[in-house]
Amino acid sequence: MSGMLKLSVQNLLRHRTRSFLTMLGIAAAVGVLFSVFSFNRGFDQGLARELQATGLHFMVVPVGCAHEVAALVLHGTVVPKYLDATVIDDVRSTDGVEFATPILVAQLPNPDRHRIDLIYGVEMEVLREIKPDWQITGEIPTAPHEMLMGYDVAEHAGLTLGDEFRYPAVDETFVVTGIIGRTNSQDDAFVYLDIATAQRLMDNPDGATAIGVKVASPERMGSIISELEEAVPGIQTVTMSQVMNSVANVAASAKSLSLAIALVALVIGAVGVMNSILMAVFERSQEIGMMRAIGASRWNIFQIILKETTILTMVGGAAGIALATVGARLIENYVRRIMPYVPGGDMLSFDPLLALACVGFALVVGVGAGLYPAWKASRINPIEAIKGS
Amino acid sequence: MIKLKNVEKKYRRGAEEVRALRGIDLEIQAGEFASVIGPSGAGKTTLLHILGCLDLPSSGELHFDGLRVDRMRESELVTLRRNKIGFIFQQFYLIPGLSVVDNIALPLLFSKNKPAPGRIEELARQVGLSDRLHHVPAQLSGGEMQRTAIARALVNDPEVILADEPTGNLDSANSEKIFDILHKLHQNGLTVIMITHNPELAGRAGRTISIKDGIIEQ
Ligand SMILES: Nc1ncnc2c1ncn2[C@@H]1O[C@H](COP(=O)(O)OP(=O)(O)OP(=O)(O)O)[C@@H](O)[C@H]1O
Ligand SMILES: [Mg+2]
Description:
The complex is a heterodimer.
Chain A: H1 3-14, H2 16-53, E1 58-62, H3 67-75, H4 87-93, E2 97-110, E3 115-122, H5 127-130, E4 136-138, E5 146-149, H6 151-157, E6 164-167, E7 172-180, E8 190-194, H7 195-201, E9 210-215, H8 221-231, E10 235-239, H9 240-283, H10 285-293, H11 298-326, H12 328-338, H13 352-378, H14 382-387
Parallel strand pairs in A: 3-8, 5-7
Antiparallel strand pairs in A: 1-9, 1-10, 2-3, 2-9, 4-7, 5-8, 6-7
Chain B: E1 2-13, E2 16-28, E3 33-37, H1 44-51, E4 59-64, E5 67-68, H2 74-84, E6 85-88, H3 100-111, H4 119-126, H5 142-154, E7 160-164, H6 172-187, E8 191-195, H7 199-204, E9 207-212, E10 215-216
Helix pairs in contact in B: 3-4, 3-5, 4-5, 5-6
The complex binds adenosine-5'-triphosphate (ATP) and magnesium ion.
């Protein structure tokens, strides 16, 4: 260790508790900052990935169904509003529609397990097209009494392939033929049944919450949509990019708020650094005077003090990144619980460049906070400092 | 080697003006061992700081090795202090977290001088601290701390050692040791100027400068 560095480190170690707490402030701020940036980045990427991965171009939903709700339908939310039974045929017969598939989302009580299952009824033949990025263990159901399970449901219920699953309310038993690999999205929480089965269970033979549509040529989507909305009353359409945009808009305010909080935390951390170093400078003024007497220039003193803030913010920043990385799972689970919609995939994957940028930013702020104490230290009058004992 | 011509030093203390030094004429020859005595508040420390180019006179001339110090810029003063002057204080002023070796080497951080290999250990040996090299100040006695401070003052090979009551915080046995070391340094050719309140030690220096109310007596 170089002498200067050793000197600065020793100075910081002199007040371990104070240095540690100051560092903790920086660590918390940088950790939050890093998490927020990571999450925002992961969110945007996940959204883009989902947009790209979905095989559907737009959804047909009942009028009055907001975009956000449509987004949830995509991932399953029970909407107490059904499309008319005839709508599916109207959509299918519209020119340019490659295929249209009804989706029914419903709740089914499961008193044996003291829970209410979320049922996602969908045409199993087109499942691959609607959810191309699912990793399924086992088989997609082909018979009426077969079911596909989301990762979380299967795990909570302790079910594996081939197990039987009974709904006493409707007195039916199903065989688990497939389990979907973890998607980290709401998809994990559903039980997937063939739509006909779902409709039968819900006593709603032709009911559909939404209709997913794929068009033959996406360039013509605009005209197809207007034609459809004109021809069929009581419906509205939501394109996937509209869904993604409204999700992104909802997320945007949360993102900027969290970013603002992180920045405020960093400013508070920086003030903590300034306060802590300033105190240390005042306490050590005799020592600083001595150093001037034995050959230190003002610049030397300035450097020593600035180095202390640099070390404090660097170590604090690195600790913050480490904490955020270790705690990423927890943070992500928490955010997934409080945010209405989060795309699948890892939201908090570690990005070394981002980590570096966050520490760098903290360093700039921290060093900025160190300038005043360092300047103050360099202006200490050695004669007065030495005498002032 | 150091020459003061009609040096005045005034301090402001609120509205009042304190004349700490009032027309000092003094010449210190290279290789001298001088003690400075006088009552409290006489201006001894002020004089030592001016001799050590740490403080500048309010008026009058200060020459060091033929250079006009009172006209120097701050950066020149720093260079002068680094290379030619070694300070020792009554309160030792060691850095608590650093070992004896690192405390001795402290001035090298500023001067960027590279000591010859074994130089720090040799200095520690000179002041009798060979078996204390890796102790921190809290593990040292007062005498050992002051000896560390002396070694630190010597690390840049200064021409003059300025000591402000170096034995002021020590018992007589330890004072004796410190004095012996300073005396030896003088015998080896170094200029040594030492403020003391101990008339017996003062008398054993080659020359005694007596100061009262900012004026040199006799
Ligand atoms: N920074 C200052 N501001 C105002 N007055 C000062 C300052 N430094 C010293 N003085 C005054 O100058 C006079 C000389 O002080 P100095 O410290 O040189 O005395 P001293 O001989 O070293 O005394 P002691 O033996 O107590 O150390 C004193 O009256 C002191 O109060
Ligand atoms: Mg004094």
